[in-house]
Amino acid sequence: MTAVKVEIYSDIACPWCHVGKSRFERALAAFPQGGAVEVVYRPFQLDPDAPHEPRPHREVLAAKFGPQAAAMDERLTRLGAAEGLAFDFDSVLENNSLLAHRLLRFALDTYGAAAQNRLKGTLMTGHFAEGLDIGDPEQLADAAVAAGLDRVAVASFLAGDALTDEVVADIARAREIGVTAVPTFVFEGQWAVQGGQETSTFLRVLEQVAKETADEDLAAPGADGCADGACAVQ
Q1: Could you tell me the pTM of the whole model?
Q2: What positions does the domain DSBA-like thioredoxin occupy (predicted)?
Q3: Which of 19, 47, 179, 188 lies most in the core, judged by the most C-beta atoms within 10 Å?
Protein backbone atom coordinates (compact mmCIF):
# COMPACT_ATOMS: atom_id res chain seq x y z
CA MET A 1 0.00 0.00 0.00
CA THR A 2 1.30 3.43 -0.94
CA ALA A 3 1.10 6.21 1.61
CA VAL A 4 -2.35 7.66 2.10
CA LYS A 5 -2.85 11.25 3.19
CA VAL A 6 -5.80 12.21 5.35
CA GLU A 7 -6.52 15.88 5.92
CA ILE A 8 -8.81 16.53 8.86
CA TYR A 9 -10.60 19.85 8.92
CA SER A 10 -11.57 20.67 12.48
CA ASP A 11 -11.87 23.39 15.10
CA ILE A 12 -10.48 23.10 18.62
CA ALA A 13 -13.79 24.48 19.88
CA CYS A 14 -15.82 21.66 18.29
CA PRO A 15 -16.69 18.80 20.67
CA TRP A 16 -17.50 16.44 17.82
CA CYS A 17 -13.99 17.04 16.47
CA HIS A 18 -12.67 15.72 19.78
CA VAL A 19 -14.86 12.64 19.48
CA GLY A 20 -14.01 12.18 15.81
CA LYS A 21 -10.27 12.34 16.49
CA SER A 22 -10.57 9.61 19.10
CA ARG A 23 -12.65 7.34 16.89
CA PHE A 24 -10.46 7.84 13.84
CA GLU A 25 -7.32 7.07 15.82
CA ARG A 26 -8.87 3.82 17.05
CA ALA A 27 -9.64 2.95 13.43
CA LEU A 28 -6.04 3.68 12.47
CA ALA A 29 -4.79 1.46 15.28
CA ALA A 30 -6.98 -1.37 14.00
CA PHE A 31 -6.02 -0.82 10.36
CA PRO A 32 -3.16 -3.19 9.41
CA GLN A 33 -1.57 -0.54 7.16
CA GLY A 34 -2.09 2.34 9.57
CA GLY A 35 1.61 3.14 9.57
CA ALA A 36 1.31 4.22 5.93
CA VAL A 37 -1.37 6.81 6.68
CA GLU A 38 -0.26 10.43 7.09
CA VAL A 39 -2.68 12.55 9.12
CA VAL A 40 -2.58 16.34 8.82
CA TYR A 41 -4.92 18.72 10.62
CA ARG A 42 -6.30 21.67 8.68
CA PRO A 43 -7.89 24.71 10.30
CA PHE A 44 -11.56 25.61 10.35
CA GLN A 45 -13.38 28.15 12.47
CA LEU A 46 -16.99 27.62 13.46
CA ASP A 47 -17.13 31.24 14.62
CA PRO A 48 -14.37 33.31 13.00
CA ASP A 49 -15.92 36.48 14.42
CA ALA A 50 -15.74 35.27 18.03
CA PRO A 51 -14.18 37.85 20.33
CA HIS A 52 -10.59 37.40 21.40
CA GLU A 53 -11.43 36.97 25.05
CA PRO A 54 -12.42 34.01 27.23
CA ARG A 55 -16.13 33.48 27.87
CA PRO A 56 -17.91 30.72 29.82
CA HIS A 57 -19.06 27.98 27.48
CA ARG A 58 -22.44 27.57 29.15
CA GLU A 59 -23.30 31.23 28.53
CA VAL A 60 -22.12 31.17 24.92
CA LEU A 61 -24.02 27.99 24.05
CA ALA A 62 -27.19 29.16 25.77
CA ALA A 63 -27.09 32.39 23.76
CA LYS A 64 -26.87 30.38 20.53
CA PHE A 65 -29.24 27.49 21.20
CA GLY A 66 -31.43 28.54 24.09
CA PRO A 67 -33.02 25.89 26.35
CA GLN A 68 -31.66 22.96 24.34
CA ALA A 69 -28.05 23.94 25.11
CA ALA A 70 -27.92 22.03 28.39
CA ALA A 71 -29.24 18.86 26.77
CA MET A 72 -26.60 19.12 24.02
CA ASP A 73 -23.85 19.29 26.62
CA GLU A 74 -25.30 16.41 28.62
CA ARG A 75 -25.47 14.20 25.56
CA LEU A 76 -21.85 14.91 24.66
CA THR A 77 -20.74 14.31 28.24
CA ARG A 78 -22.35 10.86 28.20
CA LEU A 79 -21.03 10.07 24.74
CA GLY A 80 -17.56 11.26 25.69
CA ALA A 81 -17.52 9.03 28.76
CA ALA A 82 -18.32 6.04 26.57
CA GLU A 83 -15.38 7.01 24.33
CA GLY A 84 -13.02 7.53 27.25
CA LEU A 85 -13.08 11.32 26.82
CA ALA A 86 -13.83 13.80 29.59
CA PHE A 87 -16.08 16.77 28.91
CA ASP A 88 -16.30 19.29 31.74
CA PHE A 89 -18.44 21.98 30.19
CA ASP A 90 -18.61 23.97 33.41
CA SER A 91 -14.90 24.68 33.04
CA VAL A 92 -14.80 25.20 29.27
CA LEU A 93 -13.80 28.69 28.13
CA GLU A 94 -14.76 29.78 24.63
CA ASN A 95 -12.36 32.04 22.75
CA ASN A 96 -11.44 32.83 19.18
CA SER A 97 -9.49 29.80 17.95
CA LEU A 98 -7.26 31.53 15.37
CA LEU A 99 -4.19 31.72 17.62
CA ALA A 100 -4.43 28.01 18.44
CA HIS A 101 -4.79 27.18 14.74
CA ARG A 102 -1.66 29.21 14.01
CA LEU A 103 0.19 27.22 16.66
CA LEU A 104 -0.97 23.95 15.09
CA ARG A 105 0.31 25.11 11.71
CA PHE A 106 3.61 26.07 13.34
CA ALA A 107 3.85 22.61 14.86
CA LEU A 108 3.22 20.99 11.48
CA ASP A 109 5.72 23.14 9.60
CA THR A 110 8.43 22.99 12.27
CA TYR A 111 8.08 19.57 13.88
CA GLY A 112 5.98 17.50 11.48
CA ALA A 113 2.58 15.81 11.38
CA ALA A 114 3.13 13.58 14.42
CA ALA A 115 3.93 16.56 16.63
CA GLN A 116 0.93 18.44 15.27
CA ASN A 117 -1.25 15.45 16.09
CA ARG A 118 0.03 15.35 19.67
CA LEU A 119 -0.53 19.08 20.09
CA LYS A 120 -4.04 18.82 18.67
CA GLY A 121 -4.91 16.19 21.27
CA THR A 122 -3.37 18.23 24.08
CA LEU A 123 -5.29 21.34 23.07
CA MET A 124 -8.61 19.57 22.76
CA THR A 125 -8.24 17.73 26.05
CA GLY A 126 -7.20 20.96 27.73
CA HIS A 127 -10.07 22.90 26.21
CA PHE A 128 -12.83 20.41 27.00
CA ALA A 129 -11.66 18.98 30.31
CA GLU A 130 -9.15 21.31 31.96
CA GLY A 131 -10.33 24.89 31.44
CA LEU A 132 -7.58 25.75 28.94
CA ASP A 133 -8.01 29.18 27.34
CA ILE A 134 -7.09 28.54 23.70
CA GLY A 135 -6.59 32.26 23.14
CA ASP A 136 -4.00 32.74 25.87
CA PRO A 137 -0.37 32.58 24.64
CA GLU A 138 1.04 31.43 27.99
CA GLN A 139 -1.42 28.58 28.31
CA LEU A 140 -0.86 27.61 24.68
CA ALA A 141 2.87 27.53 25.31
CA ASP A 142 2.34 25.22 28.27
CA ALA A 143 0.24 22.91 26.09
CA ALA A 144 2.89 22.95 23.37
CA VAL A 145 5.62 21.97 25.84
CA ALA A 146 3.41 19.12 27.09
CA ALA A 147 3.17 17.95 23.47
CA GLY A 148 6.95 17.97 23.08
CA LEU A 149 7.56 21.36 21.46
CA ASP A 150 10.27 23.80 22.52
CA ARG A 151 8.97 26.56 24.79
CA VAL A 152 11.37 29.25 23.58
CA ALA A 153 10.51 28.64 19.93
CA VAL A 154 6.79 28.50 20.66
CA ALA A 155 6.81 31.66 22.80
CA SER A 156 8.70 33.54 20.10
CA PHE A 157 6.21 32.38 17.47
CA LEU A 158 3.16 33.31 19.55
CA ALA A 159 4.57 36.77 20.25
CA GLY A 160 4.38 37.64 16.55
CA ASP A 161 1.88 37.23 13.74
CA ALA A 162 3.67 34.66 11.59
CA LEU A 163 1.49 32.20 9.65
CA THR A 164 -1.65 34.29 10.17
CA ASP A 165 -2.13 34.82 6.45
CA GLU A 166 -1.45 31.16 5.72
CA VAL A 167 -3.99 29.94 8.27
CA VAL A 168 -6.64 32.40 7.11
CA ALA A 169 -6.03 31.21 3.55
CA ASP A 170 -6.37 27.58 4.63
CA ILE A 171 -9.70 28.35 6.30
CA ALA A 172 -10.91 30.11 3.16
CA ARG A 173 -9.83 27.14 1.06
CA ALA A 174 -11.79 24.79 3.30
CA ARG A 175 -14.95 26.72 2.54
CA GLU A 176 -14.09 26.84 -1.16
CA ILE A 177 -13.90 23.05 -1.36
CA GLY A 178 -17.24 22.72 0.41
CA VAL A 179 -16.40 22.17 4.06
CA THR A 180 -19.36 23.56 6.00
CA ALA A 181 -19.22 21.46 9.16
CA VAL A 182 -16.51 19.74 11.14
CA PRO A 183 -14.90 17.36 11.53
CA THR A 184 -14.49 16.63 7.83
CA PHE A 185 -11.99 13.95 6.82
CA VAL A 186 -10.60 14.20 3.28
CA PHE A 187 -8.83 11.11 1.98
CA GLU A 188 -6.24 11.58 -0.77
CA GLY A 189 -7.89 14.87 -1.70
CA GLN A 190 -10.76 12.94 -3.28
CA TRP A 191 -13.15 11.42 -0.78
CA ALA A 192 -14.74 13.20 2.15
CA VAL A 193 -16.33 11.81 5.30
CA GLN A 194 -18.12 14.32 7.50
CA GLY A 195 -18.80 14.00 11.21
CA GLY A 196 -17.50 12.03 14.16
CA GLN A 197 -18.41 8.70 12.58
CA GLU A 198 -18.18 5.39 14.37
CA THR A 199 -14.77 3.73 14.43
CA SER A 200 -16.09 0.94 12.22
CA THR A 201 -17.07 3.48 9.57
CA PHE A 202 -13.61 5.03 9.53
CA LEU A 203 -12.03 1.60 9.31
CA ARG A 204 -14.22 0.69 6.37
CA VAL A 205 -13.27 3.90 4.57
CA LEU A 206 -9.57 3.26 5.16
CA GLU A 207 -9.95 -0.19 3.67
CA GLN A 208 -11.75 1.22 0.63
CA VAL A 209 -9.14 3.91 0.08
CA ALA A 210 -6.38 1.33 0.42
CA LYS A 211 -7.96 -0.56 -2.47
CA GLU A 212 -7.95 2.66 -4.50
CA THR A 213 -11.69 2.44 -4.91
CA ALA A 214 -13.54 5.50 -6.10
CA ASP A 215 -16.80 4.23 -4.65
CA GLU A 216 -19.29 7.04 -4.06
CA ASP A 217 -20.11 5.46 -0.73
CA LEU A 218 -16.87 6.96 0.59
CA ALA A 219 -18.66 10.27 0.92
CA ALA A 220 -20.62 9.57 4.08
CA PRO A 221 -23.43 12.01 4.83
CA GLY A 222 -22.97 14.44 7.70
CA ALA A 223 -25.47 16.27 9.85
CA ASP A 224 -26.25 19.85 10.74
CA GLY A 225 -25.57 21.30 14.15
CA CYS A 226 -23.46 19.97 17.00
CA ALA A 227 -25.92 17.31 18.11
CA ASP A 228 -25.52 14.65 15.43
CA GLY A 229 -21.86 14.09 14.73
CA ALA A 230 -20.62 17.39 13.35
CA CYS A 231 -20.54 21.05 14.28
CA ALA A 232 -21.81 23.41 11.61
CA VAL A 233 -21.06 27.07 11.13
CA GLN A 234 -23.50 29.20 13.10
Answers
A1: 0.91
A2: 6-205
A3: 19
